[in-house]
Design a protein that fits this description.
single chain, alpha/beta, two-stranded parallel sheet, binds NADP nicotinamide-adenine-dinucleotide phosphate
Length: 304
Amino acid sequence: MTGGRVKILVTGCMGQLGWELRSTLPALGDVVALDRSTLDFTRTHELMHVLRDLRPDVVVNAAAYTAVDKAETQPELARRVNAVAPRVLAEELQRTGGLLVHYSSDYVFDGAQQTPYAEDDEPAPLSAYGASKLEGERAIQAVGGAHLIFRTSWVYGVRRKNFLLTMLNLFEERSELKVVDDQVGAPTWSRWLAESTAQVLGQCVPCTGSAAPPLGHRSGIYHLTAGGQTSWFGFASAILDLRRSEPEAKRPELMPIPSSAYPLPAKRPANSVLSNAKLRASFGVVQPSWHSLLRRCMAELTPR
Ligand SMILES: NC(=O)c1ccc[n+]([C@@H]2O[C@H](COP(=O)([O-])OP(=O)(O)OC[C@H]3O[C@@H](n4cnc5c(N)ncnc54)[C@H](OP(=O)(O)O)[C@@H]3O)[C@@H](O)[C@H]2O)c1
Protein backbone atom coordinates (compact mmCIF):
# COMPACT_ATOMS: atom_id res chain seq x y z
CA MET A 1 0.00 0.00 0.00
CA THR A 2 1.57 3.31 -1.07
CA GLY A 3 0.07 6.56 0.19
CA GLY A 4 -3.15 4.73 0.99
CA ARG A 5 -3.43 3.29 -2.52
CA VAL A 6 -3.42 -0.40 -3.25
CA LYS A 7 -0.36 -1.69 -5.10
CA ILE A 8 -1.30 -4.02 -7.94
CA LEU A 9 1.26 -6.11 -9.80
CA VAL A 10 0.21 -7.27 -13.28
CA THR A 11 2.28 -10.13 -14.70
CA GLY A 12 2.39 -11.13 -18.36
CA CYS A 13 1.61 -7.53 -19.30
CA MET A 14 2.41 -8.01 -23.00
CA GLY A 15 -0.19 -10.76 -23.44
CA GLN A 16 -3.72 -10.26 -24.76
CA LEU A 17 -5.22 -9.91 -21.30
CA GLY A 18 -2.20 -8.38 -19.54
CA TRP A 19 -2.13 -5.56 -22.07
CA GLU A 20 -5.75 -4.66 -21.37
CA LEU A 21 -5.30 -4.92 -17.60
CA ARG A 22 -2.67 -2.20 -17.82
CA SER A 23 -5.38 0.26 -18.88
CA THR A 24 -8.27 -0.94 -16.71
CA LEU A 25 -6.62 -1.49 -13.32
CA PRO A 26 -5.07 1.97 -12.63
CA ALA A 27 -8.57 3.10 -11.58
CA LEU A 28 -8.20 0.80 -8.57
CA GLY A 29 -4.66 1.45 -7.40
CA ASP A 30 -1.02 1.86 -8.37
CA VAL A 31 -0.18 -0.62 -11.09
CA VAL A 32 3.24 -2.14 -11.71
CA ALA A 33 3.18 -4.13 -14.95
CA LEU A 34 5.91 -6.65 -15.73
CA ASP A 35 6.49 -8.73 -18.82
CA ARG A 36 8.44 -11.93 -19.35
CA SER A 37 11.75 -10.07 -19.73
CA THR A 38 11.42 -8.51 -16.27
CA LEU A 39 9.62 -11.39 -14.53
CA ASP A 40 10.23 -14.84 -15.98
CA PHE A 41 8.01 -17.47 -14.40
CA THR A 42 10.50 -20.23 -15.11
CA ARG A 43 12.91 -18.59 -12.62
CA THR A 44 11.10 -19.26 -9.40
CA HIS A 45 13.73 -17.67 -7.19
CA GLU A 46 13.66 -14.40 -9.10
CA LEU A 47 9.90 -14.46 -8.81
CA MET A 48 10.19 -14.58 -5.03
CA HIS A 49 12.74 -11.75 -4.97
CA VAL A 50 10.60 -9.51 -7.18
CA LEU A 51 7.57 -10.09 -4.97
CA ARG A 52 9.54 -9.41 -1.80
CA ASP A 53 10.94 -6.24 -3.35
CA LEU A 54 7.66 -4.88 -4.65
CA ARG A 55 5.37 -6.16 -1.86
CA PRO A 56 2.16 -5.84 -3.91
CA ASP A 57 -1.23 -5.97 -2.18
CA VAL A 58 -2.70 -7.69 -5.22
CA VAL A 59 -1.13 -9.73 -8.01
CA VAL A 60 -3.19 -10.09 -11.17
CA ASN A 61 -1.52 -12.95 -12.96
CA ALA A 62 -2.00 -12.70 -16.71
CA ALA A 63 1.21 -14.62 -17.50
CA ALA A 64 0.68 -18.13 -18.78
CA TYR A 65 2.04 -20.74 -21.13
CA THR A 66 -0.79 -20.67 -23.69
CA ALA A 67 0.63 -22.66 -26.63
CA VAL A 68 -1.95 -25.44 -26.37
CA ASP A 69 -0.50 -27.75 -29.04
CA LYS A 70 3.15 -27.12 -28.19
CA ALA A 71 2.42 -28.02 -24.56
CA GLU A 72 1.95 -31.64 -25.68
CA THR A 73 5.72 -31.80 -26.27
CA GLN A 74 6.65 -29.29 -23.52
CA PRO A 75 4.46 -30.40 -20.62
CA GLU A 76 7.13 -29.66 -18.01
CA LEU A 77 7.56 -26.07 -19.20
CA ALA A 78 3.77 -25.59 -19.25
CA ARG A 79 3.62 -26.93 -15.66
CA ARG A 80 6.35 -24.58 -14.46
CA VAL A 81 4.63 -21.50 -15.85
CA ASN A 82 0.99 -22.49 -15.25
CA ALA A 83 1.24 -24.39 -11.96
CA VAL A 84 4.59 -24.05 -10.16
CA ALA A 85 4.92 -20.25 -10.53
CA PRO A 86 1.28 -19.55 -9.53
CA ARG A 87 1.85 -21.65 -6.41
CA VAL A 88 4.86 -19.46 -5.54
CA LEU A 89 2.74 -16.33 -6.08
CA ALA A 90 0.02 -17.77 -3.85
CA GLU A 91 2.51 -18.67 -1.10
CA GLU A 92 4.15 -15.25 -1.10
CA LEU A 93 0.80 -13.45 -1.04
CA GLN A 94 -0.51 -15.63 1.73
CA ARG A 95 2.55 -14.69 3.77
CA THR A 96 1.89 -10.97 3.26
CA GLY A 97 -1.92 -11.12 3.39
CA GLY A 98 -2.29 -10.13 -0.27
CA LEU A 99 -4.76 -11.22 -2.91
CA LEU A 100 -3.99 -13.34 -5.99
CA VAL A 101 -6.14 -12.97 -9.09
CA HIS A 102 -5.42 -15.77 -11.52
CA TYR A 103 -6.90 -17.03 -14.80
CA SER A 104 -7.69 -20.54 -15.82
CA SER A 105 -9.35 -22.18 -18.75
CA ASP A 106 -12.34 -24.05 -20.16
CA TYR A 107 -9.74 -26.68 -21.16
CA VAL A 108 -9.76 -28.07 -17.61
CA PHE A 109 -12.97 -29.88 -18.69
CA ASP A 110 -13.28 -32.78 -21.11
CA GLY A 111 -16.32 -31.23 -22.80
CA ALA A 112 -18.45 -34.37 -22.61
CA GLN A 113 -21.18 -32.65 -20.57
CA GLN A 114 -24.18 -31.50 -22.60
CA THR A 115 -24.92 -28.39 -20.49
CA PRO A 116 -22.77 -25.37 -19.49
CA TYR A 117 -20.13 -26.25 -16.91
CA ALA A 118 -20.48 -24.92 -13.37
CA GLU A 119 -17.47 -24.24 -11.14
CA ASP A 120 -17.92 -27.42 -9.14
CA ASP A 121 -18.32 -29.76 -12.11
CA GLU A 122 -15.56 -32.35 -12.25
CA PRO A 123 -12.56 -31.25 -14.32
CA ALA A 124 -10.94 -33.82 -16.61
CA PRO A 125 -8.46 -32.12 -18.95
CA LEU A 126 -7.82 -33.68 -22.35
CA SER A 127 -4.50 -31.91 -22.96
CA ALA A 128 -1.17 -31.14 -21.25
CA TYR A 129 -2.11 -27.43 -21.30
CA GLY A 130 -5.46 -28.16 -19.61
CA ALA A 131 -3.72 -30.36 -17.04
CA SER A 132 -1.19 -27.60 -16.26
CA LYS A 133 -3.98 -25.04 -15.78
CA LEU A 134 -5.88 -27.41 -13.49
CA GLU A 135 -2.74 -28.06 -11.47
CA GLY A 136 -2.31 -24.28 -11.11
CA GLU A 137 -5.87 -23.87 -9.79
CA ARG A 138 -5.38 -26.65 -7.31
CA ALA A 139 -2.01 -25.36 -6.13
CA ILE A 140 -3.48 -21.90 -5.43
CA GLN A 141 -6.44 -23.39 -3.60
CA ALA A 142 -4.19 -25.70 -1.57
CA VAL A 143 -2.11 -22.72 -0.36
CA GLY A 144 -5.37 -21.30 0.98
CA GLY A 145 -4.70 -17.53 0.81
CA ALA A 146 -7.11 -14.94 -0.62
CA HIS A 147 -7.61 -15.75 -4.29
CA LEU A 148 -9.91 -15.28 -7.26
CA ILE A 149 -9.48 -17.75 -10.11
CA PHE A 150 -11.33 -16.78 -13.27
CA ARG A 151 -11.84 -19.56 -15.79
CA THR A 152 -12.34 -18.05 -19.20
CA SER A 153 -12.54 -19.28 -22.80
CA TRP A 154 -11.62 -18.58 -26.43
CA VAL A 155 -9.85 -15.26 -25.72
CA TYR A 156 -9.26 -12.85 -28.60
CA GLY A 157 -8.43 -9.17 -29.12
CA VAL A 158 -6.82 -6.78 -31.56
CA ARG A 159 -3.24 -7.74 -30.66
CA ARG A 160 -1.04 -10.83 -30.72
CA LYS A 161 -2.06 -14.21 -32.10
CA ASN A 162 -5.68 -15.27 -31.81
CA PHE A 163 -8.55 -16.74 -33.82
CA LEU A 164 -9.97 -13.33 -34.85
CA LEU A 165 -6.69 -12.07 -36.33
CA THR A 166 -5.89 -15.46 -37.90
CA MET A 167 -9.28 -15.51 -39.65
CA LEU A 168 -8.93 -11.94 -40.90
CA ASN A 169 -5.57 -12.84 -42.44
CA LEU A 170 -6.89 -16.06 -43.97
CA PHE A 171 -9.89 -14.22 -45.47
CA GLU A 172 -7.38 -12.20 -47.51
CA GLU A 173 -5.53 -15.27 -48.74
CA ARG A 174 -8.13 -17.97 -49.36
CA SER A 175 -11.19 -18.37 -51.53
CA GLU A 176 -12.52 -21.11 -49.29
CA LEU A 177 -11.86 -21.96 -45.67
CA LYS A 178 -12.78 -25.05 -43.64
CA VAL A 179 -13.58 -24.36 -39.99
CA VAL A 180 -14.36 -26.78 -37.16
CA ASP A 181 -18.06 -26.87 -36.28
CA ASP A 182 -18.29 -29.51 -33.53
CA GLN A 183 -16.65 -27.61 -30.66
CA VAL A 184 -18.77 -24.97 -28.95
CA GLY A 185 -17.73 -22.23 -26.56
CA ALA A 186 -17.99 -18.52 -25.84
CA PRO A 187 -15.44 -16.30 -27.60
CA THR A 188 -14.38 -13.71 -25.02
CA TRP A 189 -12.81 -10.32 -25.77
CA SER A 190 -9.68 -9.64 -23.70
CA ARG A 191 -10.80 -6.03 -23.07
CA TRP A 192 -14.07 -7.17 -21.48
CA LEU A 193 -12.19 -9.75 -19.45
CA ALA A 194 -9.98 -6.98 -18.06
CA GLU A 195 -12.95 -4.67 -17.44
CA SER A 196 -14.83 -7.42 -15.61
CA THR A 197 -11.74 -8.22 -13.55
CA ALA A 198 -11.65 -4.54 -12.52
CA GLN A 199 -15.37 -4.64 -11.72
CA VAL A 200 -14.87 -7.61 -9.37
CA LEU A 201 -11.63 -6.31 -7.90
CA GLY A 202 -13.28 -2.96 -7.21
CA GLN A 203 -15.64 -4.80 -4.86
CA CYS A 204 -12.75 -6.53 -3.07
CA VAL A 205 -10.07 -3.89 -2.99
CA PRO A 206 -10.85 -0.45 -1.60
CA CYS A 207 -8.86 2.36 -3.23
CA THR A 208 -7.84 3.48 0.22
CA GLY A 209 -7.53 1.48 3.39
CA SER A 210 -5.04 0.03 5.77
CA ALA A 211 -4.67 -3.53 4.61
CA ALA A 212 -5.29 -5.86 1.70
CA PRO A 213 -8.94 -6.80 1.83
CA PRO A 214 -10.05 -10.02 3.40
CA LEU A 215 -11.97 -12.00 0.80
CA GLY A 216 -13.31 -14.58 3.19
CA HIS A 217 -15.82 -16.91 1.64
CA ARG A 218 -15.60 -15.09 -1.69
CA SER A 219 -12.18 -16.66 -2.43
CA GLY A 220 -12.57 -19.31 -5.08
CA ILE A 221 -13.09 -20.21 -8.72
CA TYR A 222 -15.44 -18.22 -10.94
CA HIS A 223 -16.38 -18.69 -14.57
CA LEU A 224 -15.92 -15.46 -16.52
CA THR A 225 -16.79 -15.60 -20.22
CA ALA A 226 -18.92 -13.75 -22.74
CA GLY A 227 -22.55 -14.87 -22.93
CA GLY A 228 -24.11 -17.28 -25.40
CA GLN A 229 -22.29 -19.91 -27.37
CA THR A 230 -21.12 -20.70 -30.87
CA SER A 231 -18.78 -23.03 -32.71
CA TRP A 232 -15.46 -22.04 -34.28
CA PHE A 233 -17.35 -22.07 -37.59
CA GLY A 234 -20.01 -19.75 -36.12
CA PHE A 235 -17.27 -17.48 -34.75
CA ALA A 236 -15.54 -17.36 -38.15
CA SER A 237 -18.84 -16.63 -39.93
CA ALA A 238 -19.55 -13.73 -37.56
CA ILE A 239 -16.05 -12.33 -38.14
CA LEU A 240 -16.59 -12.51 -41.89
CA ASP A 241 -19.97 -10.74 -41.58
CA LEU A 242 -18.60 -8.00 -39.32
CA ARG A 243 -15.40 -7.45 -41.27
CA ARG A 244 -15.14 -3.86 -42.38
CA SER A 245 -13.54 -4.53 -45.72
CA GLU A 246 -12.74 -2.54 -48.78
CA PRO A 247 -15.59 -2.84 -51.35
CA GLU A 248 -13.42 -4.92 -53.67
CA ALA A 249 -12.29 -7.33 -50.91
CA LYS A 250 -12.80 -11.04 -51.59
CA ARG A 251 -15.38 -12.94 -49.58
CA PRO A 252 -14.16 -16.49 -49.04
CA GLU A 253 -16.58 -19.38 -48.73
CA LEU A 254 -16.61 -20.90 -45.24
CA MET A 255 -17.22 -24.62 -44.87
CA PRO A 256 -18.04 -26.39 -41.60
CA ILE A 257 -15.97 -29.49 -40.84
CA PRO A 258 -15.73 -31.90 -37.89
CA SER A 259 -12.61 -31.67 -35.70
CA SER A 260 -11.67 -35.16 -36.90
CA ALA A 261 -10.96 -33.56 -40.30
CA TYR A 262 -8.52 -31.07 -38.72
CA PRO A 263 -6.35 -33.12 -36.35
CA LEU A 264 -4.16 -31.16 -33.93
CA PRO A 265 -1.64 -32.42 -31.36
CA ALA A 266 -3.84 -31.41 -28.37
CA LYS A 267 -7.41 -32.65 -27.99
CA ARG A 268 -9.99 -29.93 -27.32
CA PRO A 269 -13.29 -30.22 -25.42
CA ALA A 270 -16.43 -30.47 -27.58
CA ASN A 271 -18.34 -28.34 -25.07
CA SER A 272 -16.43 -25.38 -23.63
CA VAL A 273 -19.46 -23.42 -22.44
CA LEU A 274 -19.11 -22.18 -18.85
CA SER A 275 -22.05 -21.02 -16.72
CA ASN A 276 -21.33 -17.60 -15.20
CA ALA A 277 -24.22 -17.79 -12.68
CA LYS A 278 -21.91 -17.83 -9.64
CA LEU A 279 -20.05 -14.70 -10.74
CA ARG A 280 -23.31 -12.88 -11.46
CA ALA A 281 -24.72 -13.80 -8.05
CA SER A 282 -21.50 -12.97 -6.18
CA PHE A 283 -20.30 -9.82 -7.95
CA GLY A 284 -23.14 -8.72 -10.25
CA VAL A 285 -21.11 -9.16 -13.44
CA VAL A 286 -23.49 -9.19 -16.41
CA GLN A 287 -22.33 -11.07 -19.51
CA PRO A 288 -22.78 -9.32 -22.85
CA SER A 289 -23.29 -11.76 -25.73
CA TRP A 290 -20.12 -12.97 -27.42
CA HIS A 291 -21.46 -11.44 -30.64
CA SER A 292 -21.91 -7.95 -29.19
CA LEU A 293 -18.37 -8.05 -27.76
CA LEU A 294 -17.00 -9.18 -31.10
CA ARG A 295 -18.76 -6.26 -32.78
CA ARG A 296 -17.25 -3.81 -30.27
CA CYS A 297 -13.80 -5.28 -30.70
CA MET A 298 -13.92 -5.32 -34.49
CA ALA A 299 -15.03 -1.69 -34.55
CA GLU A 300 -11.50 -0.91 -33.34
CA LEU A 301 -9.87 -2.60 -36.33
CA THR A 302 -9.03 -0.65 -39.44
CA PRO A 303 -10.70 -1.89 -42.65
CA ARG A 304 -8.72 -4.46 -44.63
N1 LIG B 1 -6.04 -17.36 -25.09
C1 LIG B 1 -7.11 -18.11 -24.83
O1 LIG B 1 -7.87 -18.50 -25.72
C2 LIG B 1 -7.42 -18.51 -23.40
C3 LIG B 1 -8.53 -19.35 -23.16
C4 LIG B 1 -8.81 -19.71 -21.85
C5 LIG B 1 -8.03 -19.24 -20.82
N2 LIG B 1 -6.96 -18.45 -21.09
C6 LIG B 1 -6.14 -17.98 -19.97
O2 LIG B 1 -6.25 -16.57 -19.89
C7 LIG B 1 -5.03 -16.01 -19.41
C8 LIG B 1 -4.55 -14.91 -20.35
O3 LIG B 1 -4.30 -15.49 -21.64
P1 LIG B 1 -3.88 -14.61 -22.89
O4 LIG B 1 -4.79 -14.99 -23.99
O5 LIG B 1 -3.73 -13.18 -22.52
O6 LIG B 1 -2.44 -15.25 -23.17
P2 LIG B 1 -1.23 -14.67 -24.03
O7 LIG B 1 -1.69 -13.60 -24.94
O8 LIG B 1 -0.52 -15.86 -24.58
O9 LIG B 1 -0.32 -13.99 -22.92
C9 LIG B 1 0.41 -14.74 -22.00
C10 LIG B 1 1.53 -13.90 -21.49
O10 LIG B 1 2.31 -14.74 -20.61
C11 LIG B 1 3.66 -14.51 -20.92
N3 LIG B 1 4.51 -15.64 -20.56
C12 LIG B 1 4.65 -16.82 -21.20
N4 LIG B 1 5.62 -17.55 -20.62
C13 LIG B 1 6.10 -16.80 -19.59
C14 LIG B 1 7.12 -16.97 -18.63
N5 LIG B 1 7.89 -18.07 -18.62
N6 LIG B 1 7.34 -15.99 -17.72
C15 LIG B 1 6.61 -14.86 -17.73
N7 LIG B 1 5.64 -14.62 -18.64
C16 LIG B 1 5.39 -15.58 -19.55
C17 LIG B 1 3.72 -14.24 -22.41
O11 LIG B 1 4.93 -13.59 -22.67
P3 LIG B 1 5.41 -13.17 -24.15
O12 LIG B 1 4.70 -11.88 -24.42
O13 LIG B 1 6.88 -13.02 -24.00
O14 LIG B 1 4.98 -14.28 -25.05
C18 LIG B 1 2.46 -13.40 -22.60
O15 LIG B 1 2.74 -12.04 -22.43
C19 LIG B 1 -4.06 -17.19 -19.27
O16 LIG B 1 -4.07 -17.62 -17.93
C20 LIG B 1 -4.65 -18.26 -20.16
O17 LIG B 1 -4.29 -19.56 -19.75
C21 LIG B 1 -6.64 -18.05 -22.35
